[in-house]
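Entry
Fold in token form

___
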Amino acid sequence: MTTDIVLNIVLLSLMAITGLAIARLRNLFPVAMLTGLYSLLSASLFTLLDAVDVALTEAAVGAGVTTVLFLATFGLTRAREKPVARSRTVIGLVVTVLTGAALFYASLDMPHFGDRNTPVQDHPLRERYLSTVNEEIDVPNTVTAVLGSYRGYDTLGEVTVILTAGIGVLMLLGVAWRRPDKHKESDR
């Protein structure tokens, strides 16, 4: 086996172990930390698959913003999960299995991975974009090259929207910085 395959298997195994640990824990602080770890493992896997743009988004949103929002929310809630009735867990398990079965059934209709005869590979503009990207930009991943060069301002706008949403959520939670009350000082 090649090194990439071994690394993929190791990362997927670590992600599975982390996911099982998240499902078993009832204390919410370790769950938040393990969720951030899961996102970092996922970002590492995306990097190995040459999807650096997806890895950056996963690291920023999954490991960064989501973990901060979890921790900010813990200041307003309990530290432990409430016990759930056994009947509700069975219903959740049934819904999860049915959803997984539907997704698996839908994936059977998809073309095989890497098949050159898929509709996306036969598009008339495909060769033009690929040759243009390879001539102008020396980045092995086409998606990363397009996002980093042609759509740089769009990506900057998306990052700004994510930052603004995160600040808005923090303000709604009451965790944002607060100014001292001027009226209390004038009452003295």
Remarks:
- The radius of gyration is 23 Å.
